[in-house]
Amino acid sequence: MPASSSFLPVLILHTGDPHADILASLGSYAQMLRRAAGLAPTSVEIVRVFEDGAPRAPQAYSAVLVTGSPENVTDGAEWGERTAQWLREAAQAGLPIFGICYGHQLLAHALGGRVDFNPAGRETGTHDIELLPAGLNDPLLDGLPTTFPAQMQHMQTIVTLPPGAVSLARSGKDNNQLVRMGDRILSSQFHPEFEQDVPRADIARRGADYADEGLNVPELVSQIRPTPEAASLVRRFLALYAPQVPLMPDPREDLQPLAA
């Protein structure tokens, strides 16, 4: 809960966690997202929906952020469908929403889009994002270069956008890397919250599997690099759509763990 009554907390819908090795060394997806957003622990409420946690009504929050997950939207997990229904209600209520990876796909599913395995295959590691015409004029991306790197780790994607949604950016394998689904609803297939240690650890652990899929693992490792523009997006989102919520000057300065 917030330290001040002048603003409502930001909700983080925690939809799953990385492998135990990454979790132990780098933290949960909710922790990574909270830090990348520049939010103090007292400014957030984390709900572990993948363990059947239930958020309060949308009106109880300033904004909602939806994490990534090892699960697939197409699995149709009961907790995922409940969360999708909550997101529909939150969208109807006008709550600012930002989804990431699984959260990006779940949000599209909730709002009438379609999610499936990407016919182009897996994207993992650091890859370039290219802004599309709609992205060149979007306020979230104001001042950013037309191409910038981002961390990725996914096999599924949005194959059909929800009605009224527009893609703002693409990658070599995915035309819907960053999507605006409403006036205050955005989502990214890539991971703004990942520092480069995350893909490095993932590729070290799963490199043999990726090689079996035909990926060039040494090339993936060599391309891992910082992604400062992508890392700024959640902070930008909150500054635009929940300006009443204070953000820490340095999104990485507060590394204390969350009780979630």
UniProtKB/TrEMBL annotation:
GO molecular function, one term: GMP synthase (glutamine-hydrolyzing) activity
Ranges for domain Glutamine amidotransferase: 27-198
Ribosomal protein is among the record's keywords: no
A Pfam family it matches: GATase
Gene Ontology CC annotation, any one: cytosol
Name this polypeptide is given: GMP synthase
EC number: 6.3.5.2
Database matches in CDD domains: GATase1_1
InterPro entries noted in UniProt: ChyE-like, Class_I_gatase-like, GATASE
Cell membrane as UniProt keyword: no
Record keywords, A-Z: Ligase
Entries under NCBIfam families matching the protein: PRK09065.1
TM stretches of this protein: none
